[in-house]
Amino acid sequence: MFDIEKIRADFPILQRQINGKPLVYLDSGASAQKPRVVIDAVRDLYENDYANVHRGLHTLSNIATEKYEGTRAKVARFLGVKDEEEIVFTTGTTEGINLVSYAWAAPRFQPGDEIVLSVMEHHANIVPWHFLRERQGVVLKWVEPDVDGSLPPEKVLEAVTDKTRLIAITHMSNVLGTKVDVRTIAHAARAKGIATLVDGSQAAVHGPVDLEEIGADFYAITGHKLYGPSGSGAIHIRRERMAEMRPFLGGGDMIDTVTRDAVTYNKPPMKFEAGTPGIAQQIGMGVALDYLMGIGMDNIAAHEADLRDYTASKLQGLNWLNVQGTAPGKGAIFSMTLGGPAHPHDISTILDKRGVAVRAGHHCAGPLMEWLGVSAPARASFAMYNTRAEADALVSALELCNELLG
């Protein structure tokens, strides 16, 4: 059973006030708040069990290693992956995608090879490919969504040619909330011998993900959006792709032997995890995933779908408000602009005075902003701890914005 009041009570920050008003936190698309169990787990590690992992034989190191490596199995279970050794720890999706760019793509892509991606991508799934364009002559092929923000898989697959080596695609747009049928794309790509990388930063937070069913070669997630600590994350890499990858970072843990004349590497996933890791961060992410799986991702998805539909119906009544993206089945993410001279930063500031936290800016989605014809919308992104009453508070604050700025 999904008990929203119990869930809200698990998040200490939701009890505070902003400018004398109850906090309405609608910026989870940027970073989610943390439940008490995550906060306690990180504190408990530092107070009682902290030591470096893997290389020690003493009690504290063994405890920390067990907790740290236990997160790998949790990530695999959360993503529906059978082999936990296909999970590589990262600091987040940005590092995960850069790992693929440097360790897998760079050694094998030639001038003229193509990467297909959508204009909805976050900069984290654009800039690493621009590196290959600048340095190796790789061609980026852009796919635009439909007018409502939908991205049919056929559109993506129509961009594929005999020069396509990779499809890099978001699972859910961080601006429009559009959900992409990455399963159809991944299966069709595999049949053509083309790799797929999926940015799962947004989608993995809002509903169940089954990577055995989806079939992508690479799938990256970010811990701080999953109610875990910042600096945590992971990427799932299919074993056959791991075998094709060279190391990205060099240092401790990723090696087997080092001499003056040679180096041999550890086996994956350790081969791609150099140096002392974010021990507390990854342990905290594991606790966050336990928390999510305890609630049930299907239950979270149903609650957020209700919030999406309720909020959308309320926003539709504001005829002076422009909402970007109305794709069917989208996530509970609403990017908005007001007509006239209203700047999104002004909107965000006025909302903040009412205790409503939203984000304003280009949302690390420059190509999408250009396609939309806007510079910087204000974005309200809902999470499992939000309520219909908070959607009402958003609408009320927007009405004040219209009075002051419209």
TrEMBL record:
Catalytic reaction equation(s): (sulfur carrier)-H + L-cysteine = (sulfur carrier)-SH + L-alanine
Gene3D superfamilies from the UniProt entry: Aspartate Aminotransferase, domain 1, Type I PLP-dependent aspartate aminotransferase-like (Major domain)
UniProt superkingdom: Bacteria
EC code(s) of this entry: 2.8.1.7
UniProt GO MF annotations: cysteine desulfurase activity; pyridoxal phosphate binding
Keyword Repeat: no
Cofactor dependency: pyridoxal 5'-phosphate
Aminotransferase class V domain sequence ranges: 24-394
Pfam family, one: Aminotran_5
Keywords for this protein: Pyridoxal phosphate, Transferase
Residues annotated as transmembrane: none
GO biological process: cysteine metabolic process
Similarity remark: Belongs to the class-V pyridoxal-phosphate-dependent aminotransferase family. Csd subfamily.
Protein name, UniProt field: cysteine desulfurase
